[in-house]
Amino acid sequence: MLVEDLHYLTTYGIAYENLHLLECLHSQFPALTPSWNCSIASNICNLNLLKFLYSHGHKVDERAMKIAVIGDIVLFAIDKRLGEWDNTIVNAVVEAGYLHILKVLHEYDCPGFTSTTMDVAARCGFFDIVMFLHEHRLEGCTARALSYASYFGHFKMVKYIDRYCFRGSITRAVKMAQSTGHNFIAKYLLYEGFNAKKYRSKSRE
């Protein structure tokens, strides 16, 4: 059998998630399957295939990890200390709403958490992730977090960010809320901003 045929059959087995075919190929030709098959397995989000390839010595590279930001594949990668972790990985986990995976990234002290992490959670409307980041991380957020929450009408999140996380001008957040018709949020921010200003004035007296 030609090397090209083996590569084709291996790719076919992974693409169609045929673990039996892969086992047969590996038993007969253990050294003739390319390492980039891990990226294919990651791309179709099949953890069993990825585990099989990894157990037979295939390298799970950075590209594979960046296309595998889903469920148990990320947990497997973290457990095996595979791939490079940066803010693109963390932000992708947040965008998917995987709080349980975000907690694991936090527990393993994986790099990639920045102030934009909470911004992404606010934009996507994941209140539980915003709370977790505020309570367990020190990066905080940028002014975009309040603007995103205001723009998309996440009122509960607006109140939380305004109270616990945000420091700065609310002008842009007010405009963002008004631009999408969330006038009740704009009124809330203006009212809270007025009260905060009045409180600071009294504190200086």
Automatic annotation (TrEMBL):
It comes from Thraustotheca clavata. Signal peptide: none annotated. The lineage of its organism: Eukaryota, Sar, Stramenopiles, Oomycota, Saprolegniomycetes. This is Ankyrin repeat.
